[in-house]
Amino acid sequence: MADAQPIPPSPARLLSASSHTAPGKLIITEVSFDVPLNHDIPESTRIRLFGRIVTHREQPIVGDTLPGGGRPWLAYLEGGPGFGNRSPQDSPLVKENLHQSYRILFLDYRGTGLSTPVSATTIPGDSADDKAAYLSHFRQDSIVKDLEAVRLCLTKKDPPNLRSWSIWGQSFGGFVSLTYLSFFPDGLREVFLTGGLAPVNVRPEVVYEATFKKVVERNVAYYEKFPEDATAVHYIASHIKQQGGKIQLPGGGYLTVPRFLTLGISFGGHEGIHSVHALLNKMKLEIAQFGHFTRSTLTALEQDTTFDTDPIYAILHEAIYCYGPGVASDWAAFRVGSKLEPFYWLSADYKAPHRGSESAPLEPLYFSGEMIFPFHFDTYPELISLKEVAQKLALHDEWPRLYDEEQLARNEVSVFAASYVDDMYVDFDLARATAKKVRGIRVFETNALYHNAVRAKSGEVISALMRLRDDPIE
Length: 474
Description:
Number of domains: 2
Largest sheet: 9 strands, mixed
CATH superfamily of the largest domain: Alpha/Beta hydrolase fold, catalytic domain
Oligomer: single chain
Domain AB hydrolase-1: 76-234
Organism: Cephalotrichum gorgonifer
Order of helices and strands: EEEEHEHHEHEHHEEHHHHHHHHHEHEHH
GO molecular function: aminopeptidase activity
Protein name: Related to prolyl aminopeptidase
Strand order of the largest sheet: 1-2-3-5-4-6-7-10-11
Radius of gyration: 23 Å
Helix content: 25-40%
CATH architecture of the largest domain: 3-Layer(aba) Sandwich
Number of strands: 11
């Protein structure tokens, strides 16, 4: 028997809606809502959600009526966690003209973009316990209730056949989508997932055991493509260590050897390997010419990951794998990675490898991938003040359930997914296991695309999913 379903979301209140035209025959309507911080306690603190609705310009705006009447709704769920939406004009869904068939909603998740954004100075509470309690409401379980509340608000004047909506979940947005399918399937008419087949009810350390294997593969691919970088990485790491192991960054953080080795997060996307090589080449040449890194290089390094501007990513990244009560992340990535020889630098000072002879090549130093480690909270200025909060969340084990496998097994919503064999962030084998748990899902699998393909190769991905939707299995 399935567990009791979660309490339905508290109503969302539409606070404002204003429309304007934009290039490309777009009508963009900016909307804002308020919802409770804790949907299970309607009288709890209210937070504000911000979104943009995109429709085709042929639909006129009459009074305060939202544009796009007669078209079904499609909500785009961004990756993350912790990232707001890009400009609608930059969305792959708009570039591929899906706004001509749907009213597309780009809703910033709570705490991101313009939706009561989270930062070190905006988290309420006087203690680390208070702040941790506040941030515990910013995972998939709360996001799904926001979405369902907004859906009910936006569709209340629509005809019955348009009151359920489609969702498109990219990466973490797919995690959100599977939570939505688990608990509020009646609100959904169809689901599209791109690189978002979350590991359902899999412990965090098992997730990282799988993704570290893929990170190793991407490191091997990197050094095969740029074999000279095996020496360059050691050259740069040695320079950092010679500067006391810590170089001040323009924004107030610190470049350390471990932080330098997190550049591998880019390996999972199209052109990621090339972007890391280009940055390393610049660093190597600056050491040789000037004996230090220029401001432009240091700025590029600190902006390579946006944890200072999107802190939820770092604070709650492991929590998105804590699928229910009794599961704590407890720095799972660190616990797994520090046991792996290629990543010894996680738990020990950097050391140059031993040369068998002067002509012997240096053993490559491996980069990490999409993992968060305790040292992030020592090297990013926005995170330093949240270190105690992050520790409390890492040990927290009273998380609400994220998935209902019995509901997924009897699913009746059409689900179409793109899954990538060489995905460094969402392990392919775990994704396949999840697909087997979702009744009726149709999956496009490929080893020719990477995790960010919906943006880098949008035409290929979107057309593949549309074919899955439109071509029935005979």
